[in-house]
Amino acid sequence: MVGPAAAEDANDDLLFADESSDGDATDGRRNPPWLILIVDDDHEVHAITRVVLGDASFENRELRFLSAYSAKDARAILAAQRDIAVILLDVVMETDDAGLTLVRHIRDNLGNRQVRIILRTGQPGQAPERQVIAAYDINDYKAKSELTAQKLYTATVAALRSYQHISLIERGRQGMEAVLEAADHLFAQPTQARFCEAVTARLAALLPQPGAVLLCADGPDGPRRLSAATTGPGAPAPTVPDAAQADVHATLRDGLPRWTDGHAVVPLRNRRQAPHALCVLTDTPLPEVEQRLIDLYAGKAGSGLDTLHLLERLQEAQVATVHALGKLAEYKDEVTGDHVKRLGRWATAIAHELRARNLFTDELDDEFCGMIGLASVLHDVGKVAIPDAILRKPGRLDPDEMTQMREHAAIGGSILRDAGGAGERNCLTMGAEIAESHHEKFDGSGYPHGLSGDAIPLAGRIVAVADVFDALLHRRPYKKAWEAEEVLDLLRGESGRHFDPRVVDAFLAVLARDGLPQVA
């Protein structure tokens, strides 16, 4: 900290001089100046303040002065400059309480609690100190008659130090909120690729200055970039510079962060994945509060990577379980596994087409479209309870056999509903809906419950179309394969009776776009 030249003057009286330079020029230091707003209707007060504090600095940052000669002028400056650190404020200007009214505007209307306000008055009787201190959010009160050069300097530096501490606390609070919000966003990413992209994009948005963020992992020829993001004009290109390569490699090896003037490397601490590290590139060193926030963010990202890994393993186990159940039903029915694979593709394509047409907007979300293909594999799981003699009968079933066969829909729904639980929608609960409803008909003549129209679950209506289409195209023990045009004619003819017309139209659009399948 360097004091003003006048600070050590033996004569500590108030200084009066002609108005000097406003101190806008900098000495080439990278640190921005502290902004000091002088609000006073006396031009001489502005000049004196600039002379006394003109060559002062605090924490290697010089002072830059802004002048307002009325409360109205000050309001305009405050609206344009949100990073003013200290206001040296007169009380009596265009009105007897103009300064005090400005204080209320700053604190209440602008919501600015950080700027430090030093009240300077030449008429203490207009604003008694005890009353003003009690009623207004000001940080110091000085009568102009007592403001020597040293006292003005001391009051200003004390106010700057207070502003600095409050700003750090506020930046830490805002940064913490941003990190937690970013972490929530990371935990919502469904795949590792999207997770990696979100990690760098979110951290780049948190940086207080232009820069770049890279997520790196080990590669055969050294650290490899998984994702990158930049922020701010003039941000460096998203590649790991040669100067940072060694630090990235070392952090991937030992899991320790590294902070330098041009870059920072922070590990993503995780237990189940290969080592990952964030490389942050900036033109200036990161302040300590930013380092702590980045380290916290990296810890959250590492936990997110572990969670995503566990979720993927869980999803793989769920897929394996669903396919095992599906294969069990196929084994009983002598149907090849290709049927359920094709059915899943058709059901997914129909769902996406319906969504593109803005139909069923309250149901067709990402989760539904991503889940229906796998859930459709379970549509006939209830056949495990049907006797083989009925399932494999080469001819038409008699009425009693047909009654037994139709029980598979309700049985499958019951099995899967019990397995899926009563919580949020999952693959098994959607599978239960499909198993129980894919034999319902749009006109209400289907089974097992005789549902009609939109009372039939949407997933069941979609799978009903895809299942009939694929079943008729392929040979079964009890029937020959149909020609494709015959199947399409049936779908059109049953639209509105057996099938939901909107689902049929969407499926026909999918077939027109992608082409009819080739049947061996």
UniProtKB/TrEMBL annotation:
Record bears the keyword Iron-sulfur: no
GO molecular function: phosphoric diester hydrolase activity
4-aspartylphosphate, modified sites: D90
Keyword Membrane found: no
HD-GYP domain boundaries: 314-520
GO biological process, one term: phosphorelay signal transduction system
Keyword terms: Phosphoprotein
A Pfam family the protein falls into: Response_reg
Signal sequence bounds: none
Transmembrane segments: none
Domain named Response regulatory: residues: 35-159
Highest taxon of the lineage: Bacteria
Full protein name: DUF3369 domain-containing protein
Species this protein is from: Azospirillum griseum
